[in-house]
Write the structure tokens for this entry.
Amino acid sequence: MSKDYRDTEYCPGYGNILEDKKIFMDSFRTQHPRAKDIHAYVSKNEGTYKKDFIKIYNGKCAYCGTSIKIIPKTMFEIDHFIPQSADCFVNKAAAGDISNIVLSCQTCNHNKSDFLIEPEIRSLLHPDHDGIRNAFFRDELYYIRVVDGQPSEVTDFYKQLELNRQICRLDYLLLNMKGLYAKIADRPEIHNLLGEAISLLSEKRNNGC
């Protein structure tokens, strides 16, 4: 299995998302046994459901990999992988099923919008499965790229989300730097210099580069 393009050298991977969602739902059902639209509960910033859902994805956007270590939790949203407007759903509640919602940063979610992923490649691009990690990769300059030989629909998805945007590179660099920063705490001089660099890059990021 190839390296996940969303993982840096230091941040945790995504784990078993399907199993973690099952655990989440077991707990959720004890309080809301008849709820259908899970999205309606998880998408609220207040309460614990969104916080618990963020943990399922280890605090990272399921599409680009940016992290709560870079942007605040309020800048993460709960995306309908297949949009609510799709004909396959009988109603809004059906689209909010736990299997159809994923953690996304605001940028990826807004870019994706109502983009409809064709049924034959949904399993490839659904972030809860391993296929997506084999569809994209990071090049030596930290750009997210499409793996050669992918269906044209994968490229369409890539362009829709603008996964080649510069901010994805900067976030990946910052996550690597933050991971290294935590690892070299016993080397004060380098640790302090790296901390200053992280602060400068974070400021640049938050000011829109």
Summary: The chain has a mean pLDDT of 94. The chain has ten helices and four strands. Residues 71 and 135 are 25 Å apart (CA to CA). The beta strands are 76-80, 101-105, 136-138, 144-146.
